[in-house]
Amino acid sequence: MSLTPGSSLRDQGRHIGPVNVDQTLKDVNILGSLNDQTRKILSKDATVFLAVLQRTFNETRKALLQRRVIRQAELDKGNVLDFLPETKHIRENDAWRGPVPAPGLVDRRTEITGPTDRKMVVNALNADVWTYMADFEDSNAPTWDNMVNGQVNLYDAIRKQVDFKQGEKEYKLRTDRVLPTLIARARGWHLEEKHVTVDGEPMSASLFDFGLYFFNNAEELVRRGTGPYFYLPKMESHLEARLWNDVFNLAQDYIGMRRGTIRGTVLIETIPAAFEMDEIIYELRDHSSGLNCGRWDYIFSVIKRFRNNSAFVLPDRSAVTMTVPFMDAYVKLLIKTCHHRGVHAMGGMAAQIPIKNDDEANAKAMDGVRADKLREVRAGHDGTWVAHPALAAIANDVFNAHMPTPNQLHVRREDVQVSGNDLLNMNVPGKITEDGIRKNLNIGLGYMEGWLRGVGCVPINYLMEDAATAEVSRSQLWQWVKHGISTDEGKKVDKAYALKLLKEQAEELEGKAGKGNKYQLAAKYFGTQVTGEEYAEFLTSLLYNEITNVSDKTPAAKL
C-alpha cells in the first residue's frame, strides 16, 4: 500500500486523521541496511507510524527515566520503598476490574520464551505449549539484523509462511493442532534503537519494536482469531504503564482498531513496581492481560536499587530461591492482586536445558523443574514459563494435574497479607563463597561474550542464561566489594580480589573457546562493573555500541 502526500489511512479504512508522508518522514533516518525482506517490514507507511509514535511519546519516556534517577538518589540516602499514599484510593477500591481475557489468552498454562530467530520461531510454535513469548528483549542481542529479521520472522509466522530449510534439515510449522498464541516482548523504556533516528535522536527501542510488530500484524492477528499481544518489561512505576496505555490507544486509533484489542502482560521484575501492582493494572485496564513474576530481573532490581545499603546484601545466587522471604512475599502479593482484579498471574522461568549423556544429573534437574512448577500452581499461578521445548511436558503435567480449569482466577488468596516490610525482608540464609564469586564471573563473562557476538540466549552449565542472570551476577559482585564483605573462607572481597578472580576466569574461558571469541572484550567491560565503583544501570546499555553499525558517516537507507 502506498500513500501520497496529504492522504490518510482513513481514506483506505484504516486511520483517523491526516498523514502527510513527506512532511512526517522529514528528519527520519534508517541507518541500518535493508533488503527486500526487511523493506516489507520497514515500509514507508510503517516508518511514518514509527515517527508519529516517537514524536508523540519520547519526551514523556525521557521524563519517566529521569524519575528513576531521582528515586535512586532518595534510596541512596537510606530511604526505602513503600506503597504510594497518593494511589491508596486505587488499591482500596474493590469495584474496578481488568478486562475479560482476550481470545487466545484464556488458558496460558505453559508459555515458551525465546528470541526471534527463524529456527526458534518454528520450534517454539511447534512446541506443546499454549503461548509463545517472542522476545526482542533479554534473550535477544539487539543487532540491527537480529531486530529487523526477527520482525520478518514473526510477520511470516503469523501468515504461516515461515517454513525454511537449513542444510538438509527442514523446519516446518505443524499442521495437526492450533498453534500457540503469539505474544511479543518489546525492549524496555530505557533502551534506544540507534539505527533509526527521528529529529536527530535515536528512536525509543520500545516504540520501534512495538510499532513495527503492531503496524504490520495487528489486523492479520485479529483476522486469524487472536490479537496484538505484548509482554511489557522493566517498568518501575504505574506512570510507565500509563505511557504504554497511551501508546496503545494512539496505535489502535491510528489504524481504526477498537480500543482494548491490544493486550499487555507486565513483567513485575523491579522492586519499585512490586509496590505498584494494583496501579499498573489500573493504568492499563482494558489493555491488561495480567502480571508475570520476572524472578531473576527482580532479584537484580533489589540489589541494584539498594546497592548502597548494606542491609540488602544477599548471599550466593544459588541461595536466593523463590522461597526466601522477600521472594515469597512478592509472589503471593502478585497472585492476590491479579486475581482480585480478574487478570492472569503468570509464574516464572524454568531455564534448565536437558542434560544429555548423564541420566542421573538430568533426572535431578528435571525433578527441580517439576518441584518449581508444583510450587507455582499450588500458589495460584495461572501459568508458567519454560525456556526449552523438552520442559513443556513437565510443566503441562503439573498444571494439568493441579489446574483442571483454564486458569485460577477464582483462587483469590484472601489469606495473604503482605506488607511493605515483607517485600523488603532480606533475611536470606546462606553464605558468600569464592565458588559463588567464580560462578557469577563465569555466568557474567559467558553471557556478555555471547551477547557481543550477537547471541542473546546463552547455554551455560545446562541453564539457558539471558541478560537477567548476568545482571544478578555482576550486581552481587559490585555489592560485595562495595560493602567489604568477607567470604565464608575468610577472604575479604575487595577490588583487587575481584579483578584477580575475573582475570583468572576470563583466561580459563578464553582457553576453552575457539578462535574469534570475545572473552577479553567481555572482561574489559565486566571489570568496570565489579569493583564497587562505577555501576551501569544495565549491562545491555553498557555494551550496546559494540554491536551497532552506526557512525557519523553511516548513510541513511532509502525506503
Automatic annotation (TrEMBL):
Pfam families membership: MS_C (PF20659), MS_N (PF20656), MS_TIM-barrel (PF01274)
Entry keyword Transmembrane helix: no
Catalytic activity: glyoxylate + acetyl-CoA + H2O = (S)-malate + CoA + H(+)
Cellular compartment(s): Peroxisome
Pathway(s): Carbohydrate metabolism; glyoxylate cycle; (S)-malate from isocitrate: step 2/2
GO molecular function, one term: malate synthase activity
Active site, renumbered: 185 (proton acceptor), 466 (proton donor)
Cellular component per GO, a single term: peroxisomal matrix
EC category: transferase
GO biological process, one term: glyoxylate cycle
Annotated Malate synthase TIM barrel domain residues: 181-425
Known EC number: 2.3.3.9
Domain Malate synthase C-terminal: 431-547
Family annotation (SUPFAM superfamilies): Malate synthase G (SSF51645)
Annotated Malate synthase N-terminal domain residues: 27-89
Keyword set, alphabetical order: Glyoxylate bypass, Peroxisome, Transferase, Tricarboxylic acid cycle
UniProt entry tagged with the keyword Nucleotide-binding: no
Sequence similarity: Belongs to the malate synthase family.
Cited NCBIfam families: malate_syn_A (TIGR01344)
Name used for this protein in its record: Malate synthase
Organism, as annotated: Meristemomyces frigidus
Lineage: Eukaryota, Fungi, Dikarya, Ascomycota, Pezizomycotina
